[in-house]
Amino acid sequence: MPANAKTGVASGKRKRKCQSVVIPEQQQIFRGLVFFFFPNNDVSPLRRLRIQRAQDYGASWERTWGNNVTHVIVDKGLTFQDVLKHLGQETFPASIALVNESYPSECVKFRSVLSAMQSRFRVNGMAAPKAKETSPVDEPSSTASLAVKPARKEQRHQTPSESSGSQHAEELPEQEIGKSAKETEAARETGRERDALDDMIEEAKAVNHLPLEPFDSHDEDTTAEVSENEASDTSESRHAEKKRRVLDKEDKAADAWQQKFTCMQKHDSKSNADNPNNRTIAVLQQMLDYYSRTDDHWRTIAYRKAISALRRQSKKIATRSQALAIPGIGQRLADKIEEIVFTNRLRRLENANATPEDHILQLFLGVYGAGITQASRWLAQGYKSLEDLRAKAPLSQQQRVGVDHYYDFSQRIPRREVEAHGTIVRTAVQKADPEMQVIIGGSYRRGASDSGDVDLVITKPGAKIEYIRTMMIETVVPGLFRQGFLQASLANTSLRDGSKWHGASKLPGGRLWRRIDLLFVPDAEIGAALIYFTGNDIFNRSMRLLASKKGMRLNQRGLYTDVLRGPQRANLGAGRLVEGHDERRIFEILGVPWRPPEHRIC
Ligand code: TTP
Ligand code: MG
Fold first, then answer.
1. Which domain holds residue 367?
2. What is the pLDDT of residues 200-209, one digit of tens each?
3. Residue ranges under compositional bias (Basic and acidic residues) (predicted)?
4. Are 113 and 29 in contact, with CB atoms under 8 Å apart?
5. Could you tell me if 259 and 232 are in contact, meaning their C-beta atoms sit under 8 angstroms apart?
6. 442 and 506 share a domain?
7. Residues 499 and 580 grouped into a single domain
């Protein structure tokens, strides 16, 4: 076998230099791991790249076989028997993880050392692991917990009850060796079995920086709340996205969003929906959006050309040389394509925020009600500060509130104050109808010690949306204005069913205006609405992704089955409602254990 001759020898042949990149230490997920490749040389350009990237992410490349090896990474064309033959062994040591070549890039993509037990990493010819309970979705997954780690910003916010899971921590079973210390530690933290939702959370996190896929448009990302000039936006600034989300879940609106996505992704026939380069195109599209925002004409042209060239390819373009062979793609773009395919992301995107213009853009994106189009327009018109906007720019009423209260809205709200806002609204609501209920959702419900805004769900047992909306809009909201609690109404009235009200409120004697969102929910939908309004956003995306993988559809109204889907999981039919009322039941039907709100921090 060819590997024998050259094992451990880095080929000195003419080979393209594979540039090492500096990955910040905390992102070096492979630190402490020792990789042995099979074949263990860097003759093949793809393997060379794989080895280089593994090293960039902290792995050591062991040239000679020994006890210190933690992972053996096998080329796809080779089999388990080839490995045994090469090693002169009859069995493979249980303490070493044996995985196929896609393992390192998948780990990088998910930013963690994944379980080597997953079937997708199985080396050809290797027996499937025995008698493990399979997860309810497609793939059998590891039984070990890969904890859903709280986002850093929320780690300090947890209530004491959240850490209680660790009391039941147990040592991992022996067969789990081969996984990283990090994963083991994560399993100890929760003491709970890894389930299908954990897989979805990993997936949702990994694509979090990319333009949304149709399935996780979470329906509220429609044009309904977006002011007219924002409607054509395609690039997804998270901040702008947040400003734009609405609760209009009409299929028509979802379709409009889908349409937008489709336009961004393809030009012609349906065949392009399956273009193997779609992911690369989506990342390049983000760069293109960035460069068009900063008026970088040449780069804009280069990216456009590359994207349209990639759209015409029927095969996946993975390497720099494949990319270079395509007319319209130059060296730099070819490098980027290779990087995207390998890491599923582009570092340049993360650095793209560094220019002075981008700082201004970020500032403008923080204005309530301003999306990326509006913020870029202000930038292009030469405004450089909030003062400029206040003094010179023609602003809508909503934008003026956003500019005038920029500082207020950027302040976190202490948990006690969120409660106080909730209590004032609850008192007013129950004065109008004692059976109506007010539930504080959002980060508060997840246990955060401070929140960005006040999210309130308003409902009533047995009630329909019309009743709740009428009570709120005609009686409660005007009353709260009169008593000096509500300060401004910010919602665009184009919400199709008017189920959400956005505004600003202030405590008696308080100084700061706070952002407050009221969500009007009929009894039949309260379970799905609570899932949606509790979040976090990545958790929601994971739940929707899980539903989608099971042929269902989850939105803030309910869980639907018999959903007809087209390419890219586009919804072709609304399906049949299976559950909307019971939050726990939705988890049950999706086949995953209940997660209390505090465990939904991803
Ligand atoms: P937010 O109030 O924006 O988020 P939050 O309450 O989780 O965090 P913060 O402390 O910053 O206010 O939205 C409320 C819920 O709406 C959120 O928990 C989940 C859902 N949501 C999504 O599903 N997708 C999104 O993109 C956003 C912004 C929110
Ligand atoms: Mg909130």
1. 356-410
2. 887 777 655 4
3. 168-194
4. yes
5. no
6. yes
7. no
